[in-house]
Specification:
- This protein is α+β, with helices and mostly antiparallel strands.
- The chain has a domain of about 70 residues.
- The protein is about 30% helix and about 25% strand.
Length: about 110
Amino acid sequence: MKKQDTRELLDIWFEFEEWAESFNEKDENTDVIFQLSDGALYCGTFFTYENLFSQARKNRATGEFLFGKYFCVDKPVFIEKIGKQEIISVINDLIAKGEIDTAFTRIDGKNSVG
């Protein structure tokens, strides 16, 4: 059983807030960078379930990933829709379960909490 993580989400940056155009919250992917209460800094990418299918269609057309035969990204987190509250809820759930290091990449150069 994983050790419960008592850290809290302190600050978060959402890539989608930087986009000038609107987007389909149910068919998109976005990066996030966030900091926890102990100063740990993480990044990750959220994909909607629908966006996985859209990526496959695009890759079949462009030839990427052997014409859509596979799709590979580092530590994707799949979510129903892209939105601030949805993403924050997922991050908080993963923190509470002690699984933040499984789902996201720590980017502050320090070791993960163990």
